[in-house]
């Protein structure tokens, strides 16, 4: 087995709806009497040809229509956690798109309840983690406000808030008041930026949302002043190599800016984004970049350490995981 597949790591950029494998999608479609425009696993997989972020989002939102009950969300997250654990993920901070479910009439409490049921069960796998509620930046802000009105009543169910969906032309600033409220409740703040959008989107997430981590951020390199800022303030970037290639944010893995980002002193982590759709989970993303860029054991360990120290896990848990990474690096 590739060494990277056993590296203990933290997954910081993972949309739970993006872990919906075709087999489970069809099973849930049957269980819930939901019609999908795909009759078989093969037909569904054949639709995984994306030209950009929007072409992916269209399929992503269509497929998640099969998720209807608390048990569905539990089964989805339990399947992800089992698979991630097998690839070395020891801590997972999981994004969920609540609005995409409440808009279909699924109660917020069933979404969060089901995801939490699965996380409770993950303790058996020795895994820890939490939930990050993402606002959809391409939907009216009133929809985000409505879901937040429910979420804020139970902030202890969340680690933080995030911002995702179609980036270009959908500024972050209208969501700033929700982030301010979330911070006041003690929640963390992250945001997608610099995936398809330019460095100005990263600046906006930092300035207006006070994002502690930037999800993707691969276009930051286009602005030397931004690179200096990110490096100086040690702001983590949750990079997703397979996603960037499959959504054509970069032309190929060989041309991915990851090595340049590391060379620029950026605090990079490697993650999977929507692994069911992009061809691999966290360990496979790590294995692929290790092979592509000839990363040795200590460079891989450094990426894993970044993921742990950039996580929102308590200090004690971080220390435990850093110990596991040291042992892995020493070849234990
Ligand atoms: N890569 C991505 N970018 C923005 N929103 C997303 N939602 C799920 N995956 C996403
Ligand atoms: Zn993402």
TrEMBL record:
Q: Give EC number(s), comma-separated.
A: 3.5.4.2
Needed co-factor(s): Zn(2+)
Q: Where is the active site?
A: 195 (proton donor)
Q: Which Pfam families match?
A: A_deaminase (PF00962)
Q: Where is this site: Important for catalytic activity?
A: 216
Q: Which residues form the Adenosine deaminase domain?
A: 8-328
Protein name per the record: Adenine deaminase
Q: Which GO terms describe its molecular function?
A: hydrolase activity
Is Electron transport among this UniProt entry's keywords?
no
Q: How is the cofactor bound?
A: Binds 1 zinc ion per subunit.
Sites binding substrate sit at: 274
Its keywords, alphabetically, are:
Hydrolase, Metal-binding, Nucleotide metabolism, Zinc
List positions binding Zn(2+). 13, 15, 192, 273
InterPro entries in the record: A_deaminase_dom, ADE, Ado/ade_deaminase, Metal_Hydrolase
- Family statement drawn from the similarity comment of this UniProt entry: Belongs to the metallo-dependent hydrolases superfamily. Adenosine and AMP deaminases family. Adenine deaminase type 2 subfamily.
What PANTHER family does the record tag this protein with? ADENINE DEAMINASE (PTHR43114)
Reaction(s) catalysed by this chain's protein: adenine + H2O + H(+) = hypoxanthine + NH4(+)
Name the job this protein performs: Catalyzes the hydrolytic deamination of adenine to hypoxanthine. Plays an important role in the purine salvage pathway and in nitrogen catabolism.
Statement: the UniProt record of this protein carries the keyword Transmembrane helix: no
